């Protein structure tokens, strides 16, 4: 991969990561509920799923998944149901008592947040199709592919970690400004609604013609 090609891919990664999606909503929700330091574990889960998706595409399995209507539908509807579940949990979440520690840490164990982020990203078949469509455009087939896939994986993960840190930190900062239970309840319902919107958008996703 040449420097110019990598730079174009690097810029594309920023555009992809900054575009609002289920991962961004999950990151903001985690920052809102658990603060930045604990909520950022969600972003680690998002990246683990991203690495898995790139590996699937690199192994050639992505093409099979993209072509299989049943696999596409199963992954999609699992993702829809999971996003709706997250939205419902956020909607009914009680206002948190803001103190030095904004949340009960037992509610946000790192492993649970990593798993949550992983499921959010892994259950989106659009990601597999998108990676399958985009990554090959930047590959130089005359050079070793493994090294190029590793470089692109590191680039995508690094950029997404920075962007999700921004989303998580923004929500965590907003949390500190909310002192009234009514304000916190309203924000919980806004995020619950956003999860519902993400689920609705995922439900309308259609498999690419093949």
TrEMBL record:
Q: For this UniProt entry, what's an example GO CC term? A: plasma membrane
Where does it live in the cell?
Cell membrane
Q: What topology does the record note for this protein and the membrane?
A: Multi-pass membrane protein
The UniProt GO MF terms for this protein read: homoserine transmembrane transporter activity
Pfam families for this protein:
LysE
Supply the PANTHER family for this chain.
Answer: ARGININE EXPORTER PROTEIN ARGO, HOMOSERINE_HOMOSERINE LACTONE EFFLUX PROTEIN
Report the family membership: Belongs to the Rht family.
Q: What is this protein called?
A: Threonine transporter RhtB
């Amino acid at each position: 991969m040449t420097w110019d090609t990598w730079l174009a891919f690097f810029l594309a990664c920023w555009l992809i990561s900054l575009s609002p999606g289920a991962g961004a909503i999950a990151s903001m929700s985690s920052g809102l509920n658990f603060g930045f330091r604990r909520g950022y574990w969600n972003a680690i889960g998002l990246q683990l799923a991203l690495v898995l998706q790139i590996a699937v595409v690199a192994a050639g399995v992505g093409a099979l998944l993209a072509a299989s209507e049943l696999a596409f539908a199963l992954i999609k509807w699992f993702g829809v149901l999971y996003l709706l579940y997250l939205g419902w949990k956020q909607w009914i979440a009680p206002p948190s008592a803001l103190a030095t520690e904004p949340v009960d840490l037992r509610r946000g164990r790192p492993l649970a947040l990593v798993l949550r982020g992983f499921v959010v990203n892994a259950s989106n078949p659009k990601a597999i199709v998108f990676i399958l469509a985009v990554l090959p455009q930047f590959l130089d087939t005359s050079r070793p592919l493994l090294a190029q896939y590793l470089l692109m994986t590191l680039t995508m993960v690094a950029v997404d970690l920075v962007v999700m840190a921004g989303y998580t930190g923004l929500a965590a900062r907003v949390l500190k400004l909310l002192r009234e239970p009514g304000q916190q309840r309203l924000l919980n319902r806004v995020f619950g609604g956003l999860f519902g919107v993400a689920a609705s958008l995922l439900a309308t996703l259609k498999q690419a013609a093949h």
